[in-house]
């Protein structure tokens, strides 16, 4: 049993790689670091994943899924049936920003994934698929419909803009923690942009 628990070596390695990514980032996470964090031998990495890079890529995608789950929970938890759509939207932003500030390493891992994808084109199809799923999920949450009812157009518009806003707002919240954005500021900014040219 790896690390004195009931997990197999594969799961232990994924957990160890995720910890290393959060603490050190992709480039500084060595085979020895990952194996030590997992409580297994370095040879187990090759056996289960083929290479350090393949293991770290899987761990990165697992962390991005966790990132997406946290973002989704922030939006869903703001879905108060007694609040109107504007109140829910503002509240969802406040909760999302609070999540980002509570778990900055998890959120910043997504930036690491994009950087690695630029260096390794083999990652791009997985990244593109994840982005498409994220756009659909974001649109479904904002429009209050099941994901299978989100049209391609809604995913390409509502979902795309919401995901772009999430990334940018979270980075600003982490870069300037003394003056983080608020849900009210996000909404005011969107309304001001929508009024351009009127």
Automatic annotation (TrEMBL):
Keyword tags: DNA-binding
Residues covered by the HTH tetR-type domain: 7-67
SUPFAM superfamilies, alphabetized: Homeodomain-like, Tetracyclin repressor-like, C-terminal domain
Keyword DNA-binding among UniProt keywords: yes
Gene name as annotated: acrR
PANTHER family: HTH-TYPE TRANSCRIPTIONAL REGULATOR RUTR (PTHR30055), TRANSCRIPTIONAL REGULATORY PROTEIN (PTHR30055:SF219)
Source species, domain of life: Bacteria
Protein name: TetR family transcriptional regulator
InterPro entries according to UniProt: Homeodomain-like_sf, HTH-type_TetR-like_transc_reg, HTH_TetR, Tet_transcr_reg_TetR-rel_C_sf, TetR_C_31
Keyword Acyltransferase: no
DNA bind region: 30-49
Single GO MF annotation: DNA-binding transcription factor activity
Pfam families for this protein: TetR_C_31, TetR_N
